[in-house]
Amino acid sequence: MDYKATLDYLFSQLPMFQRTGPAAYKNTLDNTFKLDELYGHPHRKYRTIHVAGTNGKGSVSHMLASVLQSAGYKTGLYTSPHLKDFRERIKIDGKMIPESAVVDWVSNFITNNNLWKIQPSFFELTVAMAFDYFAKEKVDVAIMEVGLGGRLDSTNIITPDLSIITNIGLDHTNLLGNTHEKIAAEKAGIIKTNVPVVVGTTQKETKAVFEQKAKKIGTPIYFADQDFEVAYSMLTVGGKQQLHIENKGNNVSQDLQLDLLGQYQHKNVPTVLKAVEELNKKGYQVDEDNLRNGLQSVIANTGLLGRWQVLGNNPLIVCDTGHNEDGIRAIVEQLENTAYKQLHFIFGTVADKDPGKVLALLPKQAIYYFVKADIARAMDAEELENRAKDFELKGEAYSSVNEAYETAKGCADKNDMIFVGGSTFVVAEVL
């Protein structure tokens, strides 16, 4: 097998949530446990940190990885989905797993599976690949981002040094439940006995869910926003965020720079700060210089893409992978604080979610370019255009993301803004 054939096997011959949606979701960890046993329990050979949440878990995972790398730890990072290259999912110190390693691992699995007879999903197999790769490369620590939910996620076989839950929003309600409390209960499935848990955002609907789970199994729980707060921020000449952070418990303030833009990162940074505090209690050695260097170099250290990423200027072009109700609300807030003459909004979504709540949040004065990403799950552009009319959003449907993007660039004045979002898959095609 070559790399192209390997990707064809992974993407086309295995059930894949990003492609087919809920049909690929497994309600059991049986396959994950079988794979873990067959590969010799690789995740037990290094320390781990587990990160779940509706929004922000990718940013928190990458920030924490950058900080740990700056502290000298050989750091594995597993995240999903990828935007441009499958190998984005599995990194060590910011470097993607080599194509040859992917080919060799999948070829080995296919050969062995003639005897094993396992029928894994795409996600189950890629998690097993990540666990094994990190063990072979002898990482010091691996940060494992939950794919969906928590309790039944394939990453949830680890016993980490720290569990992190960023926040809870109404996403994947057909699988996780239709209330904040039900979704929180699924995310709380990653909380384990004697493993401290940091919750990023205190929410009245979910606080008791997490506290009760932690109390039941006897593990300490901390709410990051009760200890740390980004009081205000400014943009530096170098294009980074200068964050003024208040430590409520110690009545101490500090200024840190972050190379990730977007005001929603103000919720994620306190989560990272509290996580580092707890990791140091567990024997990690991360000092203030490591923290500063890590936060101001997240993109350089980890290669994170798609978080309020500026693609061009004159006109300003920005993309962001925020796609659920809370994510879009944060994006709209950021747009309201951005200067432009006219907003051109390239927007697409998936068909297995009702777009109504998201469409209701979008700015009515924008010119919309409705698109269908090149995946089976994507909502038809014409259907999306018709749905948008109910919310007084005006625009046209386009046959492809690229056509919409080129049209928007041709129509936009140098003082305008082009925003690309609504779906991770739309952003992926632009990138």
- How many domains, as an integer? 2
By secondary-structure content and strand pairing, the structural class works out as alpha/beta
The average pLDDT is 93
- Beta-sheet strand percentage? 15-25%
Compute the CA-based radius of gyration: 21 Å
Strand order of the largest sheet: 4-3-2-5-1-6-7-8
Shape: globular
Q: Spans with pLDDT under 50 lasting ≥5 residues?
A: none
Descriptive report:
The chain has 17 helices and 17 strands. A hairpin with a 4-residue loop joins strand 10 and strand 11. The mean pLDDT is 93. Helix 3 runs parallel beside helix 6, helix 4 crosses helix 10 and helix 4 packs across helix 11. The protein has 2 domains: 250 residues, UDP-N-acetylmuramoyl-L-alanine:D-glutamate ligase, CATH 3.40.1190.10; 122 residues, Protein-Tyrosine Phosphatase, Chain A, CATH 3.90.190. It has 431 residues and is an alpha/beta fold. The relative contact order is 0.12. 39% of the residues lie in helices and 18% in strands. The longest helix is centred in the N-terminal third of the chain and has 18 residues.
Give a quick precis of the structure.
The protein has helices at about 5-10, 15-20, 30-40, 55-70, 100-115, 120-135, 175, 180-185, 205-215, 265-280, 290-295, 300, 325-335, 355-360, 380-390, 400-410, 425-430, and strands spanning about 45-50, 75-80, 90, 95, 140-145, 160-165, 195-200, 220-225, 230-235, 240-245, 250-260, 310, 315-320, 345, 365-370, 395, 415-420.
